[in-house]
Every structure is written in structure tokens, then in C-alpha cells.
Amino acid sequence: MEQVTNIFQNITEQECSQMMHCFQAAEKRYSAGSVISTYSRDSQKIGILREGQAILVRIHSDGRQTILEDLHQGDIFGEALTFENFDIGTMQVVCTENCRILFFDYACLIRRCQKACTFHSQLVHNSLQIMSRKAVQLSERLEILSQRSIREKLFCYFSILAARNGRETFQLPFSFSSLADYLAVDRSAMMRELKKMKEEGTVEVEKRRIVTIYPRQPF
Amino acid sequence: MEQVTNIFQNITEQECSQMMHCFQAAEKRYSAGSVISTYSRDSQKIGILREGQAILVRIHSDGRQTILEDLHQGDIFGEALTFENFDIGTMQVVCTENCRILFFDYACLIRRCQKACTFHSQLVHNSLQIMSRKAVQLSERLEILSQRSIREKLFCYFSILAARNGRETFQLPFSFSSLADYLAVDRSAMMRELKKMKEEGTVEVEKRRIVTIYPRQPF
DNA sequence: CTATTTTTGTTGCAAATGCAACAGTGTTAT
DNA sequence: ATAACACTGTTGCATTTGCAACAAAAATAG
Predict the structure, then answer these.
(1) Which phi-psi region, left, alpha or beta, contains residue B10 (left: φ > 0; alpha: ψ -120 to 50)?
(2) Which of B67, B128, B164 sits opposite A131 (nearest CB)?
């Protein structure tokens, strides 16, 4: 079974164009910094982030705002999907990069349309996959951030990457600066810790290539 | 619109029992510490956590394990929903409390059964709601844990609770010990910080009743 | 190729944090 | 009623961390 990253995965070109019509789909572009107003205006639409990055924010009464969710390529969003018991209009989707977004009717996703398109099951499956994979990713990062020290955070993240790669060696997916952001720690403090770990021989670092050397397990 | 916490919300009793048959549903009980083996054996089943708590863990080759997800009441899980590009059998759902779990066929959820039950849309809608609400919750905690200091973490969490309650006063949903766990900080350090904040007058604490006093916004 | 920007690597220092340990208070079980 | 247990509140101390600041290397743009 393959990994689902695209809501239209395993749906043919032909079915897609058929569906676009069926669902009254429309693609729109937004520039970095702009607010996707369709979000609050038409709660019946859901959006698929085809390209770019965005955030889902909640606006507090005092003007402060909380980031509720980070949205990346392939993510699905829409009021129909995030409704909680707070007021409509207090939430916004804001583009942090130039975005390309495909909107379509939420009702179409959850029930079959008149024409009884056969790919509906696949579409629902893909949606569920994308959302549950997101939960796993978020939980993964939560586990990392729950670690108390920088050293533990590094270890935790490294072992996830190692496991994902199936070996003790792997490539960092981003720069050390971004790594510090991802681990939510100070970059210089992280570098210092990394240096110590190298000296102690618990990791080997060469550019973005990392080799983890697990300490002997006590038992 | 109301908050969806139960996958069967807005589905009548009658439809439910009809569905149970339709979906070959079965409820099982697990005691704390036990592994839900159905998870890896029958990948076509999904589970609904009706009662209790569980975790989704990945078992590494060296015996170590990573918690991928925390599962709480109402959560949906199943291999069909969490499959990534790692081996089957390396993941387990382990009960951390006594659990009551309802299993049913995943295929039934995503496509209409022979009898064309009308509540399918509702079921799919509920599933999507539950999963997206989970993403919001996880992101919320991520934002909190991304804060650098204990003070910022407290503020961040308190303002989320305040916003949720619609006022500056609210009740902590759990003990201070649990709060420290939730914020992933040392309890005594948190108490110390809380004391400082009380002295400075930025919060009022009386048992589990918290009043946040926002500092004047600079502009 | 050169200028500019981003990333990496370092350090001193003050402040924040975790740890350990203990006492007091409240809660629950027997 | 009393014991057992969980939660709260506190403190000293060693360690870790964040911050600020700077230099060098690497990547990118013009």
C-alpha cells in the first residue's frame, strides 16, 4: 500500500475532471500574507492546499491570535472540518507563502452526488488518510517537544529519522537553524549540545549526514 | 452546529443497530497494559475507542519504542488509517487504561453498503470532524510546547483556556501536577514561576480557578 | 566573479530550569 | 478513625538554557 499525500491519488485524470464539474470545484491563487476569505464566508466549501503554506489562526477578543494549525501541501481545511464551540469569524486561514488552493463543496465529499461517481470511496479514503497521517506527524513532534532537555530532543528526533530511514544513518531534512526551530530550542544552545555529543561519541555529524550511536541499553 | 465527539452523533438508535449488523461490528474489552492485536492482524478493521485510553506506538528494531499517538475517548484508529511507508507489525495499539473498543470494517465506512444506508454521510462527516478536531488539539498543544519559557507556556495555555471560555476567568481542567505534565515542564519550577506571576499580578490563582490579567499591549 | 544573504560555529554570562528533598494539606480506602 | 496516597507548596543547588554578539563559511543573487 502506498502513502497517500494527495487527495486525488488513485483517481484517474478523467474522473478528476468529471469530479471538478460535479463538485463545482474552483482553483484560486493567494499571495503570501493574504487571508483566505472564502473560509469564513462560505462554510460549505473545503479547501485543498495544492501549493504553498498557510496557517489556521484564531483571533482573540483582545486582538491577540493563536495559531491553531499549520497547513502544508496536500492538507485539507474548511470550516465544516474545524468547527468547535467558538464563534464563526474568529478563525482565519492566512497564507504564509503564495498559495494555490482548490475549493469544492464539502457536502459532495461526504455524500455521493447525483451521478453516483464511483471514485467517492477513494476520495473519502484519501481524505481520512491525509488527516490521520497529519495526526501522526503532529504527535511525533509533540513527543519530541515533550522531552525536557535539548539532548533528549535531539535524540528523540534522530531516532525517529533513523527509524524512518531503517538505519542509524540519515540525512537531516533541513538546516541546523531550521532544526533548532523544529525542536523549539535556541540554535546556539543546540549547536553547543551537538558539539558535546560529538565529543562524547554518541553521534557523528558531517554536514547534514547524521549517524547515531546508541548507548548500550541498561537492563 | 454542535461539536462532534462521538462517531455516531446524529445517527438514531435504530440506524445504529442496523449499522452494527451491516458493518459486522463487534465490541471488545481490553485491560490496562494489553495490546490490541486485532490492529495488526486484520488491517481492514478500524476501532473506535468508546472508553479508556490507549497509545499508538511504533516498535523500533533495537527494541525501543516511540509513541506515535495518544488515543482518547471517541478517537478512531486502525491500520487503514495510519499506514505509512514503514513495515506492518512495527506498530501496536496498547491500552493504558481498561478500554472498550468497537471494531468495524473500514470499507463499510468509506463506501455505501449494499443496503444503501442513508446515514453514511453522517458517519463520514463525524469521522472527518473527529480527526480534524484532533489535529486542532494537537496543534494547540504544539504551540504551547513551542514556547521557550515556563512563563510563556503558562500564558499560552491560559489564553487558550480563556478564549475557549470566552472570558479571562476559567477553571483548570486538571491538577497542577498534570498541568506540569501537559506543559512538559518540571512541576516545582512551574509552581515557582506561577508564584512569581501571582506576585507580579499577572494572574490570580485560587484553587483551580485562574484569572488572567493581560499586560498592557505595547504599540 | 563579486556582493549579499544565509547558515554555521563559538563564547561569556545571566537567568531559567530541573532535580531532590521535605513538609503540609487534602482525599480516598479500609 | 486511621492509614495510605496523591496533590500542593517551598527551597537550595548544580546544570542547562537562552540571549547577545561576533567571525567564518557557504550558498545565492546580480
Answers:
(1) left
(2) B128
